[in-house]
Amino acid sequence: MQPIVCATRGGEASRRTQERAAALAKERGASLVFLYVADCGFAGPLSPTLETAMNDELMRLGGSLVSIAKVRAQEQGVDAQVVVLCGEVRKSIQEYLRQVDAGMLVIGASRPAPEVETSHRGSVDAFADAIRQATGVEVVIVGPD
What phi, psi does 110 have (nearest 5°)? Predict the structure, then answer.
């Protein structure tokens, strides 16, 4: 059985996403991997020293977040692995999915502010579509409520 990969970043939406991924893994008898990608690209151009320091901090944060997700999965009776990578998010996820021959990617869609709701959902759908097209892996989007 191909593994299920759950890309997570923390927060309330991630909890729902993690719970759904654990339920899918249990239902399908698949292994589960919680994946966090540290990407400081959101901060814009940084000096090499600051970029290294920021990535180190994001890696530590990511390690904590996926460890918590692993405990939550264990509480549902699902054993999970945790992986923390550093790089551009979509590219890193795609490479990891190929590397482990994943059968499914589970991602979350947080609840955006009302004025950006439509464009936000469109960007999540576009992200999922790009990953599907690049890898052939099924992508499940867990939305708010």
Answer: -75, 170
Is 26 within a domain?
A: yes
> For 68-113, where are the E strands, in sequence order?
80-86, 104-108
Cα 77 to Cα 14, 63, 118, distances in angstroms: 19, 21, 36
What is the span of the domain harbouring residue 85?
4-116+135-142
Contact 111/144 with Cβ under 8 angstroms? yes
What does pTM read for this prediction? Answer: 0.89
Residue 61 resides in a domain: yes
Is residue 123 situated within a structural domain? Answer: no
Share in percent of the chain as helix, strand, coil (round to 5): 55, 20, 25
Structural domain count, the chain:
1
Lookup result for tokens 């692993």: 70
How many C-beta atoms surround the C-beta of residue 84 within 10 A?
19
pLDDT in tens, 74-121: 999 999 999 999 999 999 999 999 999 999 999 998 766 555 444 445
CATH number at residue 11: 3.40.50.620
Question: Is residue 129 a part of any domain in this protein?
Answer: no
For residues 109 and 142, the answer to whether their CB atoms sit within 8 Å is yes
